[in-house]
Amino acid sequence: MVNNNNSVNKINPDLARERSKCTFNVEELTTFIDGSSENTKTRRERENFFLKSITQPKVPLEYLSHQERYDELMRMSVELYTSAREYSMEHGNPYEVYRHILGATLGPALTPDGNPLTLHFIMFLATIMGQGNDEQNVEWTTKAAGIQIIGTYAQTELGHGTFIRGLETTATYDETTEEFVLNSPTLTSYKWWPGGLGHASNYAIVMAQLYTKGICHGIHAFIVQLRDEDTHVPLKGIKIGEIGAKLAMNANNNGYLGLEHVRIPRKQMLMKHSQVLKDGTYQKAPNSKLTYSTMILMRVVIVENAADYLKRAVVIATRYSAVRRQSKLKETEPELQILDFVTQQYRIFPLIATVFAFHATAKWVWELFTNIEREILEGELTRLPELHAIACCLKAVSTTDCAQGVETCRFTCGGHGFMMSSSLPTTYGIATAACTYEGENTVMLLQTARYLMKSYQGFLQGKKLTPTLVYIEKFKGRATPSFQPRVEWIISALENVAARQIETAHGNIMHRTQNGVDYEHAWNQTSIELVSAAEMHCLVNVVTIFYEHVKSSKENLSKELALVMEQLLELYAVSTALKYSGKLLQFTNTTGHDVSELQRWLEDILAAIRPNAVGIVDGFDLSDDILRSTLGAYDGNVYERLYEEAQKSPMNQDQENKTFHKYLKPFLKSNM
Predict the structure, then answer these.
(1) Is residue 333 within 8 Å of 351, Cβ to Cβ?
(2) Is the Cβ–Cβ distance between 323 and 12 less than 8 Å?
(3) What is the pLDDT of residue 1?
């Protein structure tokens, strides 16, 4: 492995011993994850460049006030994007550069508590490019990409989030002046949450209900100026500010926006798909879901980010568990590395496997998005609903598993994992936020469920199933094969569960409607089953994608690394099957004895992975500057780093704290 970590300290002997036991070439794993040695080289060069491009705060961010933290992160963000512009001009491909520096691997290292300019690049620009016509793209993309303006994406409102159709902000067309009048009719209609809205942005894409000639045409996107470009003072009719402190990402500058009859020119409605003519005539898009293309893109990106956030956590937890010694199995033996406890392996190793599963799935869904986007440009929209459905459930499952996984990693590090310097609390704060932004996860699963019910109804009527749903036809009226300790059996069993759950949920909705319940209430009464069906549909696809990824890659890997990848695949599949063993027992012919066999299989895989655990996480190639963790550094000198970090606390700079004379001494002398 090429050690790109900054540490020159002596490696902890336990960690050194772990690396000596590794059975495969770690650099080969890194190359496999990146896709090629050239990709690895480019990524490392890019990371080194950007990590050196930002001046770090003199005082750790956690000790700064809210305002001081925002000031520092704004400075760092400007430095970052200035460097990104220079780097892109020299190396080209600015989109990939921005995607990398804003992603879940490098982003938290460069701007650890959020970035007030992120939405300008990933939402404001993307929405204009995706929903603006040619003329709008020329005008607004030039301004935004050239940093002549700073924008954000204002969709979520104080009273409405995931339910987009319920947004209250209005945009009413005035044909006498050829302007849209944007208004926030209620307090709950105030935009709430957009990053950078509080103080950074002077423009926003505002999602609002479009009215022309007294008719509402649903949600559309409008470019609205918020502040004067020179003074940054809010314009007339703009009520704007920051929403306050949060669990994490406090420098994101999330804001609120109220609009009081704000007028904008007609040409500032994004009109690639839908148009309003000068006389107020409305021309609708060929497919309403085209309006939500930016959101679908973001959900695709979130799957990739979930894998990367979880990756950070498992590197920290695994290295710390190799260094930390605690408790004895026998009094005559030394204290064990806690990584030797099977319970510790059971908490960490399946999460390592999950990282690989989500990485494979993120790559797959990104390719699917790219292909369907190409089809859309050619006028072919038939697969757009399938993309929307799979993106929704993948977003929900990946972020839920990521947040729970990061928290599990924190638990495995004991009390030290609670330290901000471990990086785990910050990572958890960022990871858990993804469970609600870009669509709350239960609602996302219900959106997928609507697609499943519609597709299943079509299947009953003889229509062809889409690729992500073909398993329904395979298991219609058939039982799961008898248990075999093979991943193929697990996939078959999970497919059967998903198919039966979809069938059962559909049947229960039909039963309720036949008994006089209207469809909407029948849907709500069946929603627990619908969420479960969507979750299983998602997991079937994740396990299958991971299986196909490993299967297709084996011939290009050394036999040692191929074996490790097979073990990780088995671990993800087996742990998933055990997690949902109740459903296997309910919907398939799986027996209690089969579940016991799955448990033994799991324990065997944990033992097989144990010698390579540190090598596997080393293969993720996260430098110390990226991890920013006292517990997860490459050298494993945990205790020295914890002590060194404690000395940075401003409270340790003065041995005589002022509170002693002000409060504590009078209290001690009070003769209570």
Answers:
(1) no
(2) yes
(3) 33
Domain boundaries, the chain: 32-115+294-433, 148-284, 448-618
Q: Which two tokens stand for residue 412?
A: 């495995």
For residue 177, give Cα distances in angstroms to 235, 288, 419: 20, 28, 59
| CA dist., res. 570 & res. 107, Å (int) | 31
What does the block give as tokens for 16?
């050194």
Cα–Cα distance, 580 to 496 (Å, whole number): 13
Adjacent-strand bridge partners of 256? 192, 241
Mean pLDDT value across residues 661-668: 92
Rounded CA-CA distance 241/489 in Å is: 55
Give the pLDDT confidence score for residue 672 in this predicted structure.
77
CATH topology of domain 448-618: Butyryl-CoA Dehydrogenase, subunit A; domain 3 (1.20.140)
Question: In this structure, how many other beta carbons lie within 10 angstroms of the beta carbon of residue 652?
Answer: 10
Question: Which of 322, 123, 149 is closest to 207 using CA atoms?
Answer: 123
pLDDT tens-digit series, residues 27-65:
999 999 999 999 999 999 999 999 999 998 988 999 999
Fold equal for 32-115+294-433 and 448-618? yes
Task: With CA atoms as reference, report the closest residue to 308 among 114, 539, 33, 2.
Answer: 33
CATH number assigned to the domain covering 32-115+294-433 = 1.20.140.10
Strand 262-265 vs strand 203-212: parallel, antiparallel, or unpaired?
unpaired
What's the pLDDT tens digit per position in 220-262?
Answer: 999 999 999 999 999 999 999 999 999 989 999 999 999 999 9
pTM beyond 0.90: yes
- 245 and 233 in contact (C-beta within 8 Å)? no
Counting runs of H as helices and runs of E as strands, what totals does the chain give? 27, 11
Comparing CA positions, the residue from 274, 259, 257, 269 lying closest to residue 174 is: 269
The answer, yes or no, to whether residue 182 has pLDDT greater than 60, is yes
| Domain 148-284 in CATH 3.40.50.720 | no
Active site residues: 438
